[in-house]
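Continuing the series of single-chain predictions for the mutant panel. This is the parent chain; the variants come on the following pages.
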Amino acid sequence: MTRKNRKQIEKTTCPTRPEPLTLLNVTSKDASEPAKPPKTPPSTAGMTTKVVKGSLWTLAGQVAPLAVSLVATPFVIRMLGAESYGVLILIGLIPTYLGFADFGMSMASTKFGSEAYAEGDEEKEARIVRTAALIALMTSVPVAAALIIFASQVIGLFNVPEALQAEAITALRIAAVTFVVNFLCGIFNTPQLARLRMDLNTFINAGSRILGLIATPIVLYQGYGIIGAVTVLLAASLLNLAGHLVASRSHLSELFGLRIEPSLLPAMAKFGFGVIAAGIAGLLLANVEKGVLSSLASVKELAFYSVAFIVASSITMFSSAMSQSLMPAFSQLNRGGQSDDSISFLFSTVVRLNIIWLLPASVFLILVAETFFTIWAGPEFGQGSTAPFYVLLIGLAFHVVTYIPFTLLMAAGRSDLIAKIYWAELFPYLLLVWMLVSRFGAVGAAAAWSMRIIADCFILLFATSRLTGIKLEYLPVVRILVAGSILAVPGFLMFLTSLPISVVGFVYLVFALLYGFLLWQFVLTRSEIDWLRLRISGLTSIRFNT
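Parent structure:
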């Protein structure tokens, strides 16, 4: 395939906006300044390819540290002991629940910085990043200072053994510094995100985290205990920040400076307030069923549900990774708040892509769930976690789609609307949880959570349609579901027969291949097939060249 044909396919598969738009409140220039060349917005051609590649890089950046953690954690547990390891987990959780302290500036920096980059105004992009960092410091430093000052009182609220309290207090003070540094990392990576350089962003994030995971057991082996482990995490965060500063400076030469963007302060503050409000409500919605379950049922039921939830949530890893690429992509295409063919194409493509891989992944998890729980956590969990897992998987299938309208609404600046939706759901959801948990235990908690997520999906799709004009085309989705219906065959074989899991697994592989054939023949569009061929030919040429 010639270079000319490749460019033509990229333009066909992802249309570009014909003319650039500008943000409001652009800082005026002094008339005495010399004339500058006109700003040239970056091309949005091939945005779908960039989003998919960026999502894969982000997913790899999640999986790699997880793999290292699975190896390193047993050593950490054995060297610290159960009690000290529990304190280390507690020290990590306390700042996590204060994640609102950056006032939503991490996401605000990505949104507004990506819009400025889309306009070709790198000076404004740099001022936005510095503005977000200033706001985050103004809001997070007082919280960190309060943690440092009242560390002993905070630790006193938890059942920390007396012999470990002094060490825990010092560790919490170190962790308070770490969480401010982490906020800055989430802001100063904006130039990489705006340019969809997820490979670079992933390398810095995953690399520093992996180094921290490897260094932790080494420090513990030297006898430095909890304080040493927390200090390693601070060093890893500082290394992360340094990496982002260097990498972002290479893409945005104006990054370092003293000027901010005061004209956007009200808009950024409004957006950040919506992010905080949505985050607090989302935190309550995501955890209320666990508290009710432990109160109305038992701690054992909570354990069954929690294990099922952890495993089922693995199905959302690609979608959550994709949302990090979609935020800057939607912000660039949606600059000025207008919808066009580029946004519609990207929106519909990523929805269909998620559903395409979701079907075989869900069926695979259903087939192996009981066996996995039995081997991994024991026979009791094999019996108690499998049924909640099946119910949670229904809700998580919709949750995979929900990430996309959620991200588009955030890119459109409607964090306030998401906050209103979440807070409106809270009380009805609490009643639903109480009713179902009191009668069905862990399965009831899973059913309540899934019902809320399904409602979330349709509410956010409706809100996206009304506010942006972007509508989900249901006919292509129905075609995928019809093609994927054949994957129900191995499921029926597992539930209705006593065939060995190896035989069922072989049947699954056969029908998964048949599913892929049906997708290629009857579901994928010509432009998508050309896009896949382009990607395959590109990989093949790279392989032969190397």
